[in-house]
Design goal:
Shape: globular
Helix content: 25-40%
Strand order of the largest sheet: 2-1-3-4-5
Number of strands: 5
Strand content: 15-25%
Structural class: alpha/beta
Length: 166
């Protein structure tokens, strides 16, 4: 998979912006395929080990969220269900299902773009990843490229409403 080979080490913020930009590319691919435009990727040791977007319509699968597909790809890439030493980048705050999968796969760090006030399970409605009652917590960085990550969703759903679709 791809690595971030620049002329020198990036700061954590610059790296987060870089990788979120790559996740946003995945979201644009989803929109082009008439899927809800959410993109996700998993990075380990400076390289992408998984990249996905929503595929619920294509697969007719309610669990085919970008995060779920990326987690499956990453586990296959490293041949282990424990995704320790990875960071998940996703353009939209994960839902309850995806937050549960993040915990189950032991992803230590999540970076997301836009908040999801109607279904977010990280900071908006629930705080699943930071619940001290659970056996694993995930470090969270939110709001990275929040404006473009939110804009693609807003525009996608506005076009759907204009066409009278679901």
């Amino acid at each position: 998979m791809e690595s971030n080979s620049s002329n020198g080490p990036l700061s954590d913020f610059d790296a987060d912006v870089y990788w979120m930009g790559r996740a946003l590319e995945m979201a644009f691919e989803a929109a082009t395929a008439d899927e809800v435009p959410v993109g996700a990727l998993i990075v380990r040791e400076g390289s992408i080990i998984a990249a996905a977007n929503n595929q619920r319509e294509m697969l007719k699968d309610p669990t085919a969220h970008a995060e779920m597909i990326a987690i499956t790809q990453a586990a296959s890439a490293i041949n282990d269900w424990r995704l320790e030493e990875t960071t998940l980048y996703v353009t939209l705050e994960p839902c309850v299902m995806c937050a549960g999968a993040i915990l189950q796969s032991r992803i230590p760090r999540l970076v997301f773009g836009a908040m999801d006030p109607k279904g977010g399970a990280v900071t908006s409605l629930y705080q699943v990843l930071s619940d001290p009652r659970l056996n694993h917590q995930t470090s969270i960085t939110s709001g990275v490229l929040a404006e473009p990550c939110g804009k693609i969703l807003t525009e996608f759903f506005a076009s759907k409403r204009a066409l009278g679709k679901k």
